[in-house]
Amino acid sequence: MSEEVSIRPAAKHVMIVEFSRPPHNHFDGALIGAIADAYEQLERGGSCRAIVLCSEGKNFCAGANFAATNPAEGDLYEQAARLFAGGLPVVAAVQGAAVGGGLGVALSADFRVASPDSRFSANFARLGIHHGFGITVTLPLVVGAQRALELLYTGVRLGGEDAHRIGLCDRLVSSDRLRAEAVALAEAIAASSPLAVRSIRQTMRGDLADRIREATAHEAAEQAPLFATSDFREGVSAAAERRPPRFTGS
């Protein structure tokens, strides 16, 4: 197990998987792969019936660190697809920001628990790039196609209350109750027949993992040329400098 991903019990048949790259929990293929490893380990173990996914630090996950790496390199999306292939239901406890690919991580879970202080944003267009992490598939499934288009085109940042209103998160509680509520929801799932839950989940999610693999292949192909544009460089600079971007379409 990676030093950046830990597993510990939370309640009967409920385990916590926590990733740790605080304060913003930027990811790469190695971190996402370690989370997928944890899921697979718990599934093999047999006693876990539901997982709570959480992170250490101010923000749940701020996606890739575009100032430091090119996320098109490596096996990030191959590892991302593994998150959707697991057999156990997952509840994500989302503190702070779930932004860009971090929103994709949150959307990989079956449910999301947030607080009014949580923030959700598919901010890719504000960075000058195409979205990734399978959001092509997951975001419309959760909020509907029209709302997904609006979120992707504008990159608007939603607070927890607005996210809850449109169904982007499933439970809204105070910040100090965030993990406890995520565990409680996971406990409610774990109290049901594990064979029935897995069967229902397989039916409801269907070929989701395959759809994610197809979507991420397309997303990566769309992203690749945009990483070389002036707009991408401007988007990253503007985000780092906390100012509105000045895009030129080049």
Describe this structure in words.
The chain is an alpha/beta fold. The protein has a domain at 5-175: 2-enoyl-CoA Hydratase, Chain A, domain 1 (Alpha-Beta Complex), CATH 3.90.226. Helix content is 48%, strand content 16%. The protein has helices at residues 29-45, 76-85, 101-108, 124-127, 135-143, 145-154, 160-165, 178-190, 194-205, 208-226, 230-241, and strands spanning 5-11, 14-19, 50-55, 90-94, 97-99, 111-114, 119-121, 157-159, 171-172. The mean pLDDT is 95.
* Radius of gyration, taken over Cα atoms and rounded to an integer in Å: 17 Å
Strand order of the largest sheet: 1-2-3-4-6-9
- Going by helix content, strand content and strand pairing, the class is alpha/beta
What kind of sheet is the major sheet? Answer: 6 strands, mixed
**Large-scale geometry:** globular
**CATH superfamily grouping of the domain at 5-175:** 2-enoyl-CoA Hydratase, Chain A, domain 1
Q: What is the CATH topology descriptor of the domain at 5-175? A: 2-enoyl-CoA Hydratase, Chain A, domain 1
Note poorly predicted spans: none
Distance between the termini: 43 Å
